[in-house]
Design goal:
The chain has about 290 residues and is mostly helical.
């Protein structure tokens, strides 16, 4: 049986809706792992729902809000593992300072994890929202207008990523790179779904987008951890120790840039108009 875009879209949405429900109920899995997996599925669901037109605007907003509520938990864990990676057994900072900061960051993460099962029970809210959505997806009917909507949305996603890339060429600080990453992740998830249109092109671009967004994610993790330490825990360190800290994160940013920029220039060799024509051709071929 030939897969239609409607079937591919429905099955992919169902897979990740069920994945979210699974991690809400998986009591034997670390809360940090559950949060990470739920947020990843939320991002895919939101990117794919854009391909459905305006019918899921409210659900996209709802998933975005739930994801925002999970963000502090994820950030607290990333702060912990990023600091640990850079400073444990590296002799860059005194061992007692490293140990103290790891204890502080661990305590912050434990406190944030209480949001999952505390008074407001965030996991219950997520489960209820996605269970209802799961029923909607199952009842989703085929819609031949999807092809035009998908073409339009992919063109918009590519244009937004391309323009963000041009902005990064002018200003490559971590904040700007993160804005680019958000747009490129959406594009990656949508390309991932479109492999049936032209497996060679979309599979290659998906791999490239995955590679770049992973590198951009590491840079963002470093920046978030650096900002958190300076904002909340700078008094724990001497001035010279903070300088070591700043220099390390600055060096990591420069390393990230040197690796990312050539890859960005490669993936955006096509201007939006060229991509639009290519996509239009692929969609016409899939219909005929």
């Amino acid at each position: 049986m030939v897969q239609t875009i409607e079937n591919i879209l429905r099955n992919s949405l169902l897979k990740h809706a069920n994945k979210v429900i699974y991690f809400c109920d998986a009591g034997n899995i670390s809360g940090n792992v559950a949060v990470h997996e739920i947020r990843k599925s939320f991002k895919r669901l939101r990117a794919w729902l854009l391909l459905c037109g305006d019918m899921y605007t409210q659900k996209i907003a709802e998933l975005k809000e739930l994801g925002k509520q999970l963000a502090p938990i994820r950030e607290s864990y990333v702060n912990l593992i990023t600091f640990e990676k850079h400073f444990t057994n590296k002799q860059l900072l005194p061992d007692r300072k490293v140990k103290l900061m790891l204890e502080i960051l661990s305590a912050e993460n434990r406190e944030k994890l209480l949001l999952l099962t505390g008074e407001n029970n965030l996991l219950n809210s997520i489960r209820n929202s996605v269970t209802e959505f799961d029923k909607e997806i199952t009842a989703l009917k085929e819609n031949n207008l999807y092809n035009k909507q998908i073409e339009s949305q992919l063109q918009i996603s590519y244009l937004l990523s391309y323009n963000s890339f041009l902005s990064v060429l002018e200003n490559s600080d971590s904040r700007n790179l993160h804005k680019l990453r958000i747009k490129m992740k959406k594009l990656w998830y949508q390309f991932e779904l479109m492999k049936f249109l032209n497996p060679k092109y979309f599979a290659t671009k998906s791999r490239q987008l995955n590679d770049i967004t992973e590198s951009l994610g590491t840079d963002h993790d470093n920046f978030i951890m650096w900002r958190h330490i300076h904002k909340n825990h700078a008094p724990c360190f001497e001035k010279e120790e903070l300088t070591v800290f700043d220099n390390l994160i600055g060096h990591q940013h420069e390393l990230a840039l040197s690796g990312i920029m050539p890859k960005l220039k490669q993936i955006f060799t096509e201007e939006p108009e060229e991509f639009n024509k290519r996509l239009e051709g692929y969609i016409k071929e899939s219909i005929n």
